Amino acid sequence: MPSPFVTRRGRLVLGAALSLLALGAPAGMAAASPPGAASVSGRLWPTASWQIQSDGNIYESSPTTARVNGTEVIAVGTETGEVELLNAATGAELPGWPREVAHAPGQPAAVESSPTIAYLDGPGAPPSIIVGTGSTAVDHGHSVGEVEAFRLSGTVRFVFHVGSQPNTASGVISSPAVGDITGNGQSDIVFGSWDHNLYALTASGKLVPGFPYNNKDTVWSSPALAHVRGAAGQDDIFIGSDASGSNRCFGGFISDFTYAKGAPRVVWQHCEPQTIWSSPAIGVLNASGRKAVVVGTGFGDTTYLPGTADIYAYYAGNGATVPGWPVHTAGPTPGSPAIGIGPGGKPMVAATSWSCDGTNEKSCFYSNSSLVEAWTGSGALLSKTSLSGATALGSPILVPLLGGPSDDIVVGAAAGLYAISPLASKNGGDPYLFGLSKVLPIFNQCSIANSPALADVPGTSALDGWHVIEACGGPASMHEPGEIASYRLPVQPRDLAGIWPMFRGGPSHLGVADA
What we know:
mainly beta; four-stranded antiparallel beta sheet; Methylamine Dehydrogenase, Chain H; 3 helices
């Protein structure tokens, strides 16, 4: 479509849709863990180990966590164009942070991309923090469009400016992924842009030869990088995009690009009858052992064609449909699916969706409810759990909250943070864990439009171990300043194989299960 903010019928929908996140909780609802509520294994969800107010509003940027020089750190972006880098043990800013992204005086800047933490110079050197700038909410989306890399000290490593198209916002909401797409053993930074291009940069911020690739329409989706062909260690690029008539496709593409003969080329591509703003996840779904690409949709075409409420799965190697897929949801699924371990030790896919009647966007925005669902690798529904608040934009993370062999779901929505058990739901029990409920999520004082993250806090105190990090807030119009909080898991996991600990699966944002 010509603009990520205007449909083909010229109706401005995105800002109105996202502002309704502020309507998430019913009037008078308290979003707090109830004292004395029912517990799991004698435990309640704890109060926050620490909770801070961010220097800027936090909206769609998801926190990214990583272990750096023995310290667990948290990176997240703000609506005021800052990147925070915090010590996960205390919530304190690291020396040299926060950092403001590059922009001219009077030029608006915002960060809704999720920061990537990656070792661009190899594992022996300090990592870099890479982030895109662009916003669905600041100055009607016409904020600065760039990808910027910072050193661990906070100094600027490089700034790469993207272009713009007529009637199209300039920006990068796609979260950069760092892998090796050329097969030369060097790190490449891959991301999509609203300027219609797919980019790949070297570690120094220069274009990889053959890029950018002109998609001829906007790219919201964050890329997934996984090896399926080519040189040892070489990654293909899997990404969603808009497709307003390109190759006779009206809706969106999910595509597989490989780098060959000095340029990216399309190996396989599927046209779906809706924009693909969702970011693909890659993992093994069945006994075939083959990697599969799982992706949701968007809501760019408000006619809500049949493909709007589907989640698709294709084999990464050849694009063939995985048996049992696509699965049907109640509405658009703009977040990223997560892949982990479900009941019985078998693969599980989880994703959020909106609750709609399937006819138009108004039925979604005013439903005051969203869903988080889980499926087996063969597409059988395991659980369907309601979240208070319409139009959930975040993605779930997967971790065994009860210490068992299968993953549970932690997910944010307009009313707060939820802890959900697909196994309990499958067995007919209450899916809300730790005495929580749809109308009483984990304590938080603002809406969550992003994904939580797990942090492994080192130390010997009572607060060491695995924590859930939430970042919440919204654009200035919602009057919700950014907050970041850390909660120590009530039951520390015994086995972390098969978890999906943050947006895109890990700090390099490869989008690959167990990466």
